[in-house]
Amino acid sequence: MDIFTIILWLITLVFLFISFKKDGAKTKKALKMALNMGKGMAISIFSIILAIGLILTFLPPTEIASFVSKQSLFLATVGSALLGTITLVPAFVAFPLIGTLVDAGVGTVPSVAFLTTLTMVGLVTFPLEKKEFGTKFTLVRNGFSFVFAIVIALVMGVII
Amino acid sequence: MNIIKKAKDNLFFILVLLVYLLISIFRPTMAFESVKNSAYYIKEMLIIMPVIFVLTALLDLWVPKDKIMQLLGKEAKGKGLVLSFIIGSISAGPIYAAFPISIMLHKKGASIRNIVVILSSWAVIKIPMLLNEAKFLGPKFMIIRWVLTVLAIIIFSWIADKIIKDEDIPNKEEVKVGIEINKKACIGCSLCVKTYPEVFKMDGKKAFVKDYDEDTVNKEKLNEAVKVCPVKAIESDL
Fold this sequence. Notes:
The complex is a heterodimer.
Chain A: H1 3-22, H2 24-58, H3 61-68, H4 73-86, H5 91-103, H6 108-120, H7 126-133, H8 135-159
Chain B: H1 2-9, H2 11-26, H3 28-62, H4 65-72, H5 77-89, H6 98-107, H7 112-124, H8 127-137, H9 139-163, E1 179-181, H10 191-195, E2 200-203, E3 206-209, H11 219-228, E4 234-236
Antiparallel strand pairs in B: 1-4, 2-3
Helix pairs in contact in B: 2-3, 3-6, 5-7, 6-7, 7-9, 8-9
């Protein structure tokens, strides 16, 4: 557990304690709401996780890296950005991976494009995001994130 | 009908299960591998989601709507933007952990722009991740990427705000909250207690809701108590 998660837990527990002192009934209601929220999202989150497991098996990040490193800059950038949208890997996997990409000579542009879409654009989280925020919001947010991922990558390529 | 609707709601889940079923038949080792790959995410979810749900519910009940509107609404401008970046950046957990909080904030009056900022920064500019990034890619890389990403989010959240209307976000039915008395409004007339003494009681100068069982509540009597209150202080969605 990283420090931020621990802090989040502490804050919430303190908040819960104060809330209980001030109004027990209201706090019970809050816990019931939390449980309902959890029930509402459980299947979706579980599907996302199982899907990630599948994708990581069929499309291991290391293989993506070796694929990208063989392409031309343009193909590598668009390709890695696209591949980044399907996969969703945790930060502690993503950064070392990008590190190896850069070390292997892939170049900053495709690496950054990959990193940004990896975390921001989610094909696997799309159904859940759509359910919660509606189709239009989800399309717009993911679409812009994708476009700007490439823009960020290109600008970084110029600067670095 | 019910089954069809349920299946439609969980189409993605069914699809994923189907794929698992197929590969367990044809490539059992790959199915096993996939489950193993999911393990980390399951652990991550169990650590982060309960606390997110509880925090969201607590904020929902304790922070008044006008406060959220003032902090994160359309009028909050730059201050709201900064606050949204802070909320997103200090957070832990995957992007879907940001969904319940963002929905709650939007329901309470946060603008579309700030919701987009929270979701996006939750995904890419986490402070817990910065050290990791500097370690593997160098501090210069980290700082430039960080600045560019913040700029990009500022720009595209502004565009998104122009395109998306508040009505585009589905208004989900609220979670049942039961019977509630607005203590500020209650004048202590005790009419509700007289109408339905099994549920309401007086405590000092205010009416209170007793412990009740949702299934045995007499809805007619309850509705009568709601109606009879001269200041409309009783709310119920049973």
